[in-house]
Write a structure and sequence with these properties.
The protein is α/β, with parallel strands linked by helices. It has helices at residues 23-28, 50-55, 71-79, 85-92, 102-111; strands spanning 2-6, 17-20, 34-40, 58-69, 115-122, 125-131. It has a six-stranded mixed sheet. Strand 5 and strand 6 (125-131) form a beta hairpin. The two termini are 17 Å apart. The mean pLDDT is 93.
Length: 133
């Protein structure tokens, strides 16, 4: 099962089971059944304790891909004058519960037993893919 967990229907993708991420939804997905999970611009809007629950839905050999905004890159871009303050405010105040830097999400995924497959940074956005052994 390939699952795309999003905040809005506008983020739905073809080829995936698309779901608005809620605690009730996560209770409905059986553990260790997903071959692939996507969290694109959703991680910052869910409580921290939700990520281990999401990872529990991955089957062995399955992957999770997270695309999100990196707080450290926002700060660096502001300092260097690469990011206008209006855009910074939009990133920081867009209903997020938190902003997690790439290095922190990498450490969290590894501490949950996942192996990092790919990592990349483009401007203030990161993309990380991890696999459950």
């Amino acid at each position: 099962m390939k699952v795309n967990l999003v905040m809005h229907e506008s983020q739905f993708l073809d080829g995936y089971e698309n779901h608005i991420i809620t605690p009730e939804l996560l209770e409905q997905i059986p553990d260790a059944t997903c071959t692939e999970i996507l969290l694109v611009d959703s991680l910052d809007y869910i409580p921290t304790e939700t990520l281990p629950v999401v990872i529990g839905k991955l089957r062995h050999g399955g992957t999770i891909q997270i695309v999100s905004t990196d707080l450290l890159e926002i700060c660096r871009s502001i300092f260097l004058g690469l990011l206008p303050m209006e855009e910074c405010n939009a990133h920081l105040t867009n209903g997020r519960l938190k902003l997690i830097p790439l290095i922190q999400i990498k450490q969290q995924l590894e501490s949950l037993g996942l192996q990092i497959v790919e990592m990349s940074m483009k401007s203030i956005k990161y993309d990380i893919k991890a696999q459950r052994p």
